[in-house]
């Protein structure tokens, strides 16, 4: 079975061709960072317009790379939410048009489910496991019992971890996206030069909160500027901030494993590409006797391969499913569990 995956939930226009659920033939991503960097963040209208301009080209490139034609595709999987509604609609409507024109089935996929299953593009790990989805828009802990069976254990109550990375980078005078910039600066700084606060919330909570550490960084920067005294370097601030976020994420993962009695961990989403997070989680899991997995960085950030993978599994569970093309729609706040 050949699956064409489409992803346009935010600011990446992506298409991928997946064969039989585990052989990736192509994975094309058009990044919009150059469009949004001057504004300090994603501008929804510009994101939607770029998807309209780029989606046809990205699909064509994905098919060419896979050495297949559109008529060879057996199933279309498209992100239908959550995300920016204008961006989502571009992908959903394109998928509906292709499905109708070729008379092939269409599966609407939850973007978060795509992230949860991205690891299966590389490893066929056993269920159940704990998964942390950590990105610019989400910081969620799940218990994953099987394909399609997910239980939410905790989520952020304010900023997502990736969002806080972007905002701290902006405070330090850098452009969007801030995650890779903070990581690079942190590698050159001293993480012990200043200890920023860690928010663990009430006892045993698996929820997250990153607004406090973000505010603490802003206050610290302002005080340094007002005092005109040589203080910490920007690299030290970035290192201290990153350490605070990574420590909370890793400890909550271990707490979730202990609560659920599980010993397998998957960390996914855009922030899962962060080297410090990968190292610390792997180390903490090893200390506790747990196994840990991380998708390759290309599968951590938004991509269509993970959508094709999730779509394949959904179709495999219900092979006679046919989407109601008239009623299938994008949903900005689509929930998973």
Q: Could you describe the 3D structure shown?
A:
The protein is α/β, with parallel strands linked by helices. The chain folds into two domains: 2-116 and 300-317, Nucleotidyltransferase, domain 5 (2-Layer Sandwich), CATH 3.30.420; 125-294, Nucleotidyltransferase, domain 5. Helix content is 44%, strand content 19%. It has eleven helices and ten strands. It has helices at residues 33-36, 44-66, 85-102, 111-117, 161-171, 179-187, 211-227, 234-260, 275-288, 297-300, 305-317, and strands at 2-7, 12-19, 23-31, 75-81, 106-110, 129-134, 139-146, 149-155, 264-268, 291-293. A five-stranded mixed beta sheet has the order 3-2-1-4-5, with helices on both faces. Strand 1 (2-7) and strand 2 form a beta hairpin. Helix 8 (234-260) packs parallel to helix 9. The protein is globular and about 65 Å long. It starts with a strand and ends in a 20-residue tail after the last helix.
List keywords for this structure.
19% strand, 337 residues, Nucleotidyltransferase, domain 5, 5-stranded mixed beta sheet, globular, single chain, 11 helices, 2 domains, alpha/beta, 44% helix
